[in-house]
Write a structure and sequence with these properties.
By secondary structure, this protein is of the alpha+beta class. The protein has a single domain (35-143), classed as Glutaredoxin (3-Layer(aba) Sandwich), CATH 3.40.30. The chain has five helices and four strands, in the order H-E-H-E-H-H-E-E-H. A four-stranded mixed beta sheet has the order 2-1-3-4. Helix 2 (46-61) links the parallel strand 1 (35-41) and strand 2. Helix 2 crosses helix 5. The longest helix has 19 residues, at 125-143. It is globular.
Length: 144
């Protein structure tokens, strides 16, 4: 019996597809965002949980636009430290420190790092997409 089990296990292993350990993907376009959409998140925050599907819909709605979505996680001290470093790398650390309320979405101009507007779970995905498109149109007019 043990011999049959081992034989079947070996056969299953041989027939199973080989796992892909690494690969490459095509990266197209340029990497210059016009707008940062920054969510201040914590796992224990109910508003953050409510915002997740809204922001997923927003991201799908502006996927072809120069918008960088960033989540600054403040769930614990380690993640908060990493969030602060990411905010510093994006040159938005002062805005992060001044607007560190969980469940808050910051719309930030990626060029001059100014806070343009905020959103919360009270805003629908369509409202947030509208805000993003308004700010993108204004940025485009400013460069013309």
């Amino acid at each position: 019996m043990l011999k049959h089990i081992l034989a079947l296990t070996a056969l299953a292993f041989l027939l199973a597809p080989a796992p892909t350990l690494a690969g490459t993907v095509s990266i197209e376009g340029d990497g210059d965002p016009t707008l940062y959409v920054v969510k201040v998140h914590a796992d224990w925050c109910g508003s953050c949980t409510a915002l997740a599907p809204i922001l997923k819909e927003v991201q799908a709605g502006v996927s072809d636009k120069p918008v960088l979505f960033v989540e600054l996680d403040v769930t614990d001290s380690t993640l908060t430290s990493q969030a602060r470093l990411l905010a510093a790398a994006l040159d938005i650390e002062a805005l992060f420190k001044a607007n560190n309320t969980t469940g808050l979405v910051l719309l930030i101009d990626a060029q001059d790092h100014t806070l343009l507007e905020t959103a919360t779970k009270q805003n629908s995905a369509a409202e947030i997409v509208g805000k993003i498109e308004t700010h993108l149109a204004a940025a485009e007019q400013a460069t013309d």
